[in-house]
Design a protein that fits this description.
15% strand; 454 residues; 13 helices; Alkaline Phosphatase, subunit A; disordered N terminus
Length: 454
């Protein structure tokens, strides 16, 4: 017998407030029943997008210049990799030891010098209308990669297609590009604003009372009452917007234990958790493996909430010459522990071949160390690292000049990286979505970087 769900009242939605089923964002439950399917052959089932907020320096990571002058070479030397003639920064030796599993792009480039505009560009693959630190989030701007994946290639019933955590990144104002924008709340990420490194990290759950069967959950009245009765469990979840649009998906996730269990990191051994590093970022990368294993297709792991400062992101302008090495001595070892742990774990579980890992920030850092003792913003040439998902192993694409200032070989822009990720998932980069004015827009303005593919 078919049923026509009744729309929840304004009062009911407001009463739910910060609640969401299973601690999950209701926007994630919104389905797109008539979404066009992928037409390309997929090389990957999922993408883990490790966004390095603040802008990692190419000189300290994947494109060191040990023979450059002191004010370019920087604080560290270089270390050899397994690839002939290829060197990485000396503070990432574990990554260097697995260079034969990576594709390194040394010619990423664009022209946005402010964090919010460059951050939006890196999270959507679409250049903002202006390079302005005051760029504000709006429904006129482009949706996040994962929201497009949710629109065009949604995960099976009971699974969140797009998962993002543990921060809402910002530089003054919230950086655009972290949600579904004009695609609608139905394609927003399942966003988890909790620290996965906390001992009590869990998603608040709705549990089924003994007198409430799965069949009864097909009644909207019953599920709204259930939410009201358990609202105290859901205070840490996102605002329940868009409930009416995806009732069926909400019920599916409520009654599907596999995806819920992916968020229980206590199921992992202490050895595995220690391998990733007992940091917010380290445990976030472990969580990414778990949610992909459970069926998610696009995962945004934000390295930090803010751009720089102790315990924050990669923005190391520096206020004195001593403070910059102190900060890098936190950032680089953390990166050198977590990225290899994720890639090794995926490989050992047989998941690396069909999971694309992408490590990239919004830009790089200036070739010359500034008078403040650090490196300033530099979008003209920076690095990205890819692994798995059909990419080449032990491959370097592009090259920079002797100072690491400009690309001399190759060109890769954020829109090209976007096209590469979409194509890996089997989504045609020329597929179209429609904005609020019903105008058709291509999901990518770039071209897949064919040289990266095996």
């Amino acid at each position: 017998m078919s049923r026509t769900p009744l729309a929840p009242s304004r009062r009911a939605v407001l009463r739910v407030g910060g609640a969401s089923l299973l601690g999950l964002s209701f926007p994630q439950f919104l389905a797109a029943a008539d979404s066009p399917k992928a037409k390309h052959k997929a090389r990957a089932k999922a993408v883990i997008f490790l966004h390095q907020w603040g802008g990692p320096g190419q000189h300290e990571t994947f494109d060191p210049k040990p023979d450059a002058p002191d004010n370019v070479r920087g604080w560290y030397g270089a270390t050899k990799t397994k690839l002939p003639g290829v060197i990485f920064g000396e503070r990432i030796p574990k990554i260097a030891a697995m260079a034969d599993k990576l594709t390194v792009v040394r010619c990423m480039q664009h022209t946005m010098k402010n964090h919010n505009s460059a951050g939006y560009y890196s999270l959507t693959g679409v250049a903002p209308p202006t390079d302005d630190q005051r760029l504000r989030d709006s429904l006129e701007l482009f949706p996040a990669y994962g929201s497009i994946v949710d629109k065009l290639l949604p995960a099976p019933k009971g699974v969140a297609t797009f998962v993002a955590y543990p921060h809402v990144i910002a530089d003054g104002s919230i950086t655009p590009g972290q949600h579904a924008s004009f695609l609608g709340k139905g394609h927003a990420p399942l966003f988890v604003n909790q620290d996965p490194n906390r001992a009590d990290f869990r998603l608040p759950e709705l549990t089924l009372p003994s007198d409430l069967s799965v069949e009864r959950l097909e009644s909207r009245k019953d599920i709204l009452k259930l939410i009201d009765d358990q609202s105290d469990l859901l205070e840490t979840s996102l605002v329940a917007q868009g409930l009416d649009e995806s009732y069926q998906k909400a019920v599916a996730m409520l009654t599907s234990p596999r995806f819920k269990q992916a968020f229980d990191l206590s199921k992992e051994s202490e050895k595995t958790r220690a391998a990733y590093g007992r940091t917010t970022y380290g445990q976030g990368c472990l969580l990414a493996r778990r949610v992909v294993e459970a069926g998610a297709k696009f995962v945004n792991v934000y390295f930090s909430r803010a751009i720089g400062g102790k315990g924050q992101g990669w923005d190391y302008h520096g206020f004195n010459k001593e403070s910059v090495p102190d900060r890098l001595n936190e950032l680089l070892p953390m990166t050198d522990q977590t990225l290899p742990a994720l890639i090794t774990d995926l490989e050992e579980r047989g998941m690396l071949d069909d999971t694309l890992v992408v490590w990239v920030g919004e830009f790089g850092r200036t070739p010359k160390i500034s008078s403040n003792g650090g490196r300033d913003h530099w979008p003209q040439c920076y690095c990205a690292v890819l692994a798995g998902g059909g990419t080449k192993k032990g491959y370097v694409y592009g090259a920079s000049d002797k100072l690491g200032a400009y690309a001399t070989v190759g060109q890769a822009r954020p829109e090209d990286l976007a096209a590469t990720m979409f194509e890996a998932l089997g989504i045609d980069p020329e597929a179209e979505i429609r904005d609020k004015l019903n105008r058709p827009l291509p999901v990518s303005r770039g071209k897949p970087i064919g040289e990266l593919c095996a």
